Amino acid sequence: MTAQTVGPDPDVFERYLERTRWFGGKGRPFRIAGVRRIGEVPCAGEKDPSVVIDLVEVAYEDAEGGSEVYQVPIAFYENPETRLDHAFIGWWEEPSYGWVHAYDALHDREAMGCWLRSFAQAAGEPGGNLNDESGLRFHRLPGYELDLETHSTLFSGEQSNSSVAYGDDALMKVFRKITPGVNPDISVHEVLTRAGSDHIAALYGWLDWVDGDPTSQGAGGSGTTVQLAMLQQFLRTASDGWDLALASARNLFAEGDLHANEAGGDFAAEAERLGVALREVHTVLAEHFPVERLDAAAVGELADGMDARLDNALTVVAGLAPYEAGLRAAYSRLRDIDGMEVQQIHGDLHLGQTLRTSLGWKIVDFEGEPAKPLAERLRPDSTWRDVAGMLRSFDYVPHVVERQFAEDQPEGVDQRAYRAEEWAHRNRNHFLTAYAEGGLDDEERVLLDAYVADKAVYETVYETRNRPTWVGIPLEAVARIGA
Fold first, then answer.
1. 190 Cβ partners below 8 Å, 6+ apart?
2. What are the residues facing 170 on neighbouring strands?
3. 0.85 exceeded by the pTM?
4. At 334, which CATH number?
5. Are 446 and 338 contacting, i.e. CB atoms less than 8 angstroms apart?
6. What is the pLDDT of residues 146-157, one digit of tens each?
7. Rounded CA gap, 297 and 335, in Å?
8. Domain presence at residue 4
């Protein structure tokens, strides 16, 4: 990205990024390599601020090195706005605006109203596309009228992105770390929305920018589309799938000596419904995205990748060593498969990516694993990767609750361990049977076993590095696989 002088000293952005929740470089030495002003969000109200969008390039100065680009929407006011003190970025002289007080625009309801009105205006434009002079493009899908009288509320709990609710019906997700190209969260939601899927939050629109500067590099090369935000249905009354599953496991442990199918909070029916929902989403995606057939050589490369990840994990997680042979065997069985189909999938599916509404299950956040490069997240993969992710999530639920109970009730450890495995097995089985509409054939079982093993190995590394006391959860699954 070409460095451009935009207002403040780079130190202002350094201090700002360090105190945000969504900056991914905390704890690493970095410098601001460049700031690029890509556009101004149209604002016409008398009280509206000037709202601009800057792309801030961060260059890391540790051994790992590399760089990242972050989106920073800014609201400029001539005078201080004490109501926005918590979102203050700095005070400086802007070439086009004079002296300004700058605030993170997502905290400002006046600024967020500019976004909402621009999305609404796009609905009346040809093709549902409002092209701003600066290159910003607001896109709208037909079928939903936005409430322009409502106000915005910024969610405080998110980390990698920022989300703003407009009243009770619309939600805007602003992508903070920017990568040129198509964001699968938008492209997949668009396809599923146009297809009328009941298992997602409908997409209302999105914001992108086309870089027309032939001299620019990095974020936004010549003619490159950079997707900045998406507007979608706000499922305000929905319940988080992970929280519901935890509540079910807590209920089981509180019941004493009841079996999982006898407890009042039995989750099996919900697991079945979720399996059906995932199968139907995969079916629609296969109808609208390319489905490819990997030959035996490509499947072998998939197994090689799993072996390589295990090689790395063995250097981090000492407890994996006793199960290496069994894990290698699970990967090796892939090499006996003549070929396999791959398609667009979710890519990072677990219970935390699901919502339960009064009308059924919704699957959210189709970005894929944020840590992976965009090209890898867009690559077709086996549907069994999504299934494996959900099975691992069902395995985590009761063991997390088991550990919570142990802190307050050290007695009854053996019974809770038995009940935890019973809950996990029951819900994994109901989910899988519903997804597969019965049993799995031999090839499907080989694929699923390999993907489950690969996911569990990844979890052992993650837990070792971030929550060492939890590493026993994925190690128990590895033990079952590698036994």
1. 141, 203, 206
2. 166, 233
3. yes
4. 3.90.1200.10
5. no
6. 999 999 999 987
7. 8
8. no
